Amino acid sequence: MDALRTFYARLPIAAITAGLAYYALAALSLYLTEGVSGLATIWPSSGVFVAALLLSSKPQRPAIVICIALASFVANGQANATWSDAALFTIANVCEALMITWLCLYGRASGQVGNFSNLRSVGRFCGSAIIGTLSAALIAGFLSGKLSVPFVESWATTTLLGTLIVTPLIVTVVRIITSDKVRVTTGNLVESFGIAVILIALSAGVFGQTAYPLLFLPLIGVLIATYRLGGVGTAVGVFSVAMAGTLTLAGGAGAVPLIEGGRNAGTLFFQFYLLSLLIAAWPLSALLEQKRRLIANYAESNYFLELAESAAKLGHWHVGSDGAELGWSNEVYQIHGLDADHFRPEKTGAIKQGTSLDLYHEDDRENVRTTLLRALQQQDGFTYNARVVRPDGEVRFITSIGEARFDDRGNFAGLFGTLQDITAQTEILEELRQARESALREAENSMRLAETDQLTGIANRRKVMMVLADAIKVAEAGGSQLAVGILDVDHFKSINDRFGHAVGDHVLQQVASLCSSALREEDFVGRLGGEEFLIVMPGAAPEIAKLICERVRIAIQLADWTGEELDLVTVSIGIASHRDGADDTWLMQAADAALYQAKSDGRNLLRLAS
């Protein structure tokens, strides 16, 4: 539609063009045929008006409305109507076109014109046209003071026919011309022109003679045009019949003017005839177009399905309800490593006697056989995973999913299943499983290293402080006891200075080991840094904490240090008990103060914070 938008952007040229087309058709209609109350038999100008609005954007419509309103005023004024009536009729014409356009485009966010190739759009357009023309007839009759059943009937039928015949023709042709997806060939143009000429000639002959009742022939012609050209054929066909019939009726020839009731009765009959053509042709056109789209979509879907099955290594198979007519697709043979002509069993001895089951891994055959027999007996769906062994010994992993088939009468007809080669997926899943396990091990190792003191092998400061924070939360929530102890190696700097850092490192390692051994199972110890260690004792009252820490102190004091040329290694410990509202900072400060007191009192002691 970009080319069309560009065209309408060159206003007022497009608006003037629409106005001139409206005026020419209106003047021609008024000149050729006049019906009840001076109204034309068919008002094709209304179709031009609606088509111009549908094919334009909102900013372009005011200029189009102005130009066509002027054309309507002049055309009506030059006819039998007074200039005041011409103005009133123009108002009604404008209201009619705007209402039809609004009803057709309401709810369409894109503002695109209606699509006359499906039943819903055709129904919406027809409904909009009926509402718009009836409303305009009432408006025109009320404003002009001519409101009556004959006036409303004549106005509504003439403008309705013009809208239903001309609007789809213009919109469809413009859409084809401006569409990038539709290729218009010389053959299409010649065929369309030929059909139009034939229908005009046929209709003129039918409406111009009185010997035979041949009004069914134009209907056949329109249906043939619809079958050959779709929506374009319908629009061109009905327009051709309407034009030929109008010209014949205007000349007074044929059987239609002879209908009892005079010219007005003949006019109403011809209008009813054209409506019948539209009712017969447009739904057929929509259904044919829908059928063409379904066929195209089906062909495209089959093409992509074949590509997908080939890429996915997916085949299908079926078996009859009595164990006969086993059928495999070519892809199933490929999966089994067989040529389609080499192995094509005609009976499900493949299932019952093991012909095709021999292709499965011996550990999977019984499961496959049992699964398929149960599905046949229960007339139900199934699924199984198994391994097939190709003639060259290669093992392939497959999965099969299927369901029971039933004929049109509901009788069980057998099983239908798909069979997919999932060897690559299985291998990838196995690799992913191994990679995941390796990653978990590495993550655990990394976490352990991140929380472990490299020298002593016990928890580092980060880890022991996390344990302390969790212990405080548990104590606060449950009201339980909690104590901590800060342990410091006495005269550690002197040990490093006298015996070297290697001896000092060994002392720290031994202290960590002795401390861990002396603690309870629920206690936790970590190195804070340097020669300081933190002991977390969940559930320990102050007296219990003192006993635990005393056991640690004695274990270190009584240890054999002669291997390091040391006579004695001692530690001092400061103990603090948790109180309501106390955090880890308070506990650490209290224990550190108690440790300072133990060192001040002579070392190799433990003190409890007050």
TrEMBL record:
InterPro entries: Diguanylate_Cyclase, GGDEF_dom, MASE1, Nucleotide_cyclase, PAC, PAS, PAS-assoc_C, PAS-like_dom_sf
Main location: membrane
Domain PAC: 382-434
Entry-linked PROSITE patterns: GGDEF, PAC
Membrane topology summary: Multi-pass membrane protein
Identification of the protein by name: diguanylate cyclase
Entry GO terms, CC: plasma membrane
Keywords, comma-separated and alphabetical: Cell membrane, Coiled coil, Membrane, Transmembrane, Transmembrane helix
